[in-house]
Amino acid sequence: MNNYLINKDTLVILPYNNQSIVIEKDRKFIVKKNPNNIIKANCNMYGSSYAGRLDGTKKLTGYTYKAPIIIEDKNNTIFFPTSSPRFKNAYWINLDNVEYAFQEKNINKIMFNNGFSIKINASLNIINNQILRATRLSSILSKNNA
Q1: Strands, DSSP E only, in the chain?
Q2: Rounded Cα distance, 51 and 36, in Å
Q3: I need a labelling partner for 145 at 20 to 30 A (CA). Which of 59, 61, 64, 137 fits?
């Protein structure tokens, strides 16, 4: 698959050999773009640029590093990276589908609301902070849209 439209069932976009593995609630597949390019293309498909979305996050929250991104405003679809998007190992996580982060046998994981979990390449504190930052952005958007 060459292109991918992020939707409510998207859980996570993982890097894989300069491509991506996209995991949805009921399926997974390879997309021939890296995760950052999928995020950028979806910002464009939903009517904004990646730079514009970053600027919006900065203005609303002050976050500039590992900032969560509003992919689509209408449904408050927000993704956050597990590390700096400048690095190729960043996972992009859909906030709407995160249940919680946890540690199991010294392995950090994220549990999604469908019962699926993935190993995360970051500390539990970093992941919880990213979830908190994305949740704050979502809260600000909800108040602004009320």
Answers
A1: 10-16, 19-24, 28-31, 69-72, 77-81, 92-94, 98-104, 107-112, 117-119
A2: 12
A3: 64
Give the model's confidence band at 146: pLDDT under 50 very low, under 70 low, under 90 confident, else very high.
low
**Contact (CB, 8 A) for 23 and 35:** no
84-138 pLDDT per residue, tens: 888 888 999 999 999 999 999 999 999 999 999 999 988 999 999 999 999 999 9
CB neighbour list of residue 28: distance below 8 Å, 6 or more residues apart? 21, 22
Q: What are the structural domain ranges in the chain?
A: 10-145
Structure tokens belonging to residue 22: 């996209």
| 145 pLDDT more than 80 | no
Which is it for strands 107-112 and 117-119: parallel, antiparallel or unpaired?
Answer: antiparallel
Q: Which amino acid is at 11?
A: L
Residue positions counted in the chain: 146
In this prediction, residue 5 carries a pLDDT of 94
This prediction's pTM: 0.94
Q: How many CB atoms lie within 10 A of CB 93?
A: 28
Tell me the residue type at 21.
I
